[in-house]
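Justification of computing resources. Each target in the renewal requires a structure prediction run like the one illustrated here; the chain below, 1014 residues long, is used simply to show the kind of job we budget for.
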Amino acid sequence: MNLFDIPAELPFLDCLAAGVLADFRDRPPEALSRATILLPTRRSARGLRDAFLARAEGRALLLPRMRALAGLSTEDADELALPTLLDLPPAVPALTRQAVLTSLVIRLPPRHGGPGTPEQAWLLAAELSRIFDEIALEEPDTALLATGTPGEFTETWLGRLEGLVPESQATHWQITTHFLRGVATAWAGWLEEQGLLDIGLRRVLALREQTRAWQENPPEHPVIAAGIGIGGTIPAAVELLRVLAGLPQGAVVLHGLDRAELAAIWDSICSSPTHPFCSQGRLLHAMGAEPRQVRRWHGCAEAAPAVPAARVALLEMALRPPEGMQPWTVPSPETWAPGLTGLRLVAAPEAQTEAAAIALLLREALETRGARAALITPDRDLARRVSAELVRHGIRADDSAGQPLGQTPTGVFLRLLARTVAEDFAPVPLLALAKHPLAAAGMDRAAFLDAVRLLERRVLRGPRPLGGLEGLGQAIAALPEDDRKPPLLTLHAALAGALGDFSTAHGAARPPADLLEAHLSAAEALAATSQEPGGLRLYAAQEGEVLAGHMADLGPALKHLPPMDPALWPALFEASLEGVATYIVRQHGAAHPRVEILGLLEARLLAFDRVVLGALDEGVWPLATDPGPWMSRPMRAQFGLPEPEARIGRVCMDFFLFACAAPEAVFSRAARRAGSPTVPARWLTRLETFLSGQGLVLPGSEAARMAAALDVPDRVTPVSRPAPRPSLAQRPREISVTEVADLLADPYAFHAKRILRLRKLDPLDADVGALDYGIIVHAALSGFVNAISRAPNGWPGEDSALEAWGQAAAAALAAQGPRPSLAAFWRPRLARIGAFVVGLEAERRQGGGIAGSWTETAGLLDLHRPRGTVRLKARADRIDRLGDGSLAILDYKTGTLPRTDELQDGRAPQLPLEAAMAAEGAFAGVPGAAVRLLTYWKLSGGETAGEEKQMLSEPEDVAELASAAIERLGALVDRFLLGDAAFTARPHPGRKTRGGDYDHLSRVAEWADAEGDE
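Resulting structure tokens:
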């Protein structure tokens, strides 16, 4: 047999190209073009092309045909002169298969374990697709596949499966096999009706046709299968390789098996599925060959070793099965130390530091002229992080795995549109959609964005408006009539016109194909501008062609699904973008020619000057072994499917060969990923354990330390406590009683609010919380007091008062418009507050104790100071005229009440200042009089519904406190409003501040820590 091997320490593609060119050295130039070379991936085919060109040294070459043996397509049939492939029925389109299987599995009721939603059915169909493909691809009897119909093959493997599950087996397995029989039989029948083949079955038959064609008519020109079977392969491909190796013009070239030391433990290797050479060992066994029949490829003599042979020996020894570990017990550091040359380990604390360290290593490699570097990892998250980190070094290196269509800008736009409609135009998804670069709704893009920002500020911030476009329109219509309202009306009309019948997710069930059509029509209309149609904008991006093709395939596929609830459409649509039948968009452009980010399959057979093996953690590389949802491990073995552990052996072989793919190899891992601790990959653990027994260690890399230091400044200089000093003209000439405490406790916050005029934006989709509850309580009390004050003698009686409270509370609750759940929570609290208030009012009003009441009353008082006049403003919650003509001032609180000492020392100046204003007649409609009472009512509505706290009850005490408050206020305005004092942030640590809305502007955490403040 023509079996060859290229050792791991040699560059595979260079050796392969050298050997092929040597074979054709004395032949005409066109002879090389008639040769065919089969490789595992298209990327390796491109790498071999480059190797041929490098070997040509400037000479023109007619290159051989290089094809990836991932399954022969109709296009390959013409290239390889295999007309028999054209006679095979076509394979079912992937999306059509997914949709038809979804329609089959959705028939199983949820009470019997069936999917509850179309999205779940779609995902279950993806699992069915995998098991159907695996069964067909791993079927050893290829003759059965070739001679029987899809239905006959299905009956064969179902019978085999049911033989594994006797009646005594668990009920779960009985249900599983019953379900599989129903779906698989219906699926095979559908394929026969349509004249199609399943994807896996079509691939196997294509390989068998290729095998049969070469058996009956051996090729006249060389055919070489190179690097195939490194991680194992399917029986149909094994048969093809066996036939090819026996052809006069055929050859099979393996990789990394040229290890004489393995002969003694070869049987152990072949029985250990996690060993890197197990897959190739089983391949040789299936081909009827032995390792001694494998010869070294003749092109190896012309290539220089890429890495020291000692490294290969070291890694092979560290990865040996237990039967070959006797050398581990013999210390021989001088033998193994040379193998560490060029190896390094990056141990990062977390994934982001790992990514930054890898980016540094790749950038460092470019300092060597002409050097090529690569990150190889199965972790797509790490690949994206490294790609982003490389940008800071001026390098663009896109992930070879590409970008899922659902994560491209256009895919995100389509997903946001579906989510916005499904969530009834809730503020967050609506703004995400409206601010997407594609959104314009037929308007000028700049005008559209201005209107969206206005909508955000005036409608969407704060409590959520009523649902749907109708609710949004009602919220806009309720706005005051001003010059800012017309743009919002125009925006609403544009959105309604663009979305058409896709504007609601409510209503009767609709066919998914109709939903897709409405979805795409709405997307095109929403993407249109006043200058450009939406279709051009939607499909003009880099992913546009792929998106259009995917949607063109998805529409007919969805016609196989039954009608569904429109509210479930977004989940199904996202699943159709992210599932197994999804196109992948690869980024194109000015990627760096010497830096690559590759997955495990894409990196096979390639060579570099520096390679970083990233995410070497258990669960990532290698992935956890999972037998899947259909069969247990013993059942898979009895059925004839590979054990899940074989995947570990395949990726272990990748690790072994990649570590030998460059003179410098860096192993990288992170101690934590996604916040959870990780375990080093078993290969790293074995390597470090073996080295420890030899008194050696794997050299570490400084890259993680350097990456952590990238964003650490040489010197940290905290900002000083801010103390802005605006000009006198900028300082306000009025202040409210509630702002006095703010100016005392945090002048900087007062400066930001009143001088800079900065206001905290309400959150989007805000919960109706404590602030709104306080507003409701204040409104209810105001309506209640006004109602009972109109009664004869100021008191209508307890029953009438309770009725008046109920009406006032209901009106206040309706005006605030909370969600029904919150209204149901607050209603009993308001009832408890009502009972408490009515009891107090009955006691205070009986016998003419209160002659009149004023609620929510505004007041103005001018303070004439030597440097000018400042106006003091207030809005008193309630002022009562008592029977003796004096006044009582009440303030309602739903939270904590101030202490008496805080009133007396000026930390809570609101009530004393209101008393001073009332004495001067500063409140509208309230004649000036002495103030006798300063009182707080705490109204929580809890177990203790309310609490009355009289702060002062003697006119002399109130007058003295009010006078002191006015005097302190005068000194305060002299300094800050009429003087030039700086508005220092929090000058008095002992004073409490309200809210802290401006703390991030004053950077309090920074300077407070520097000053040693608490």
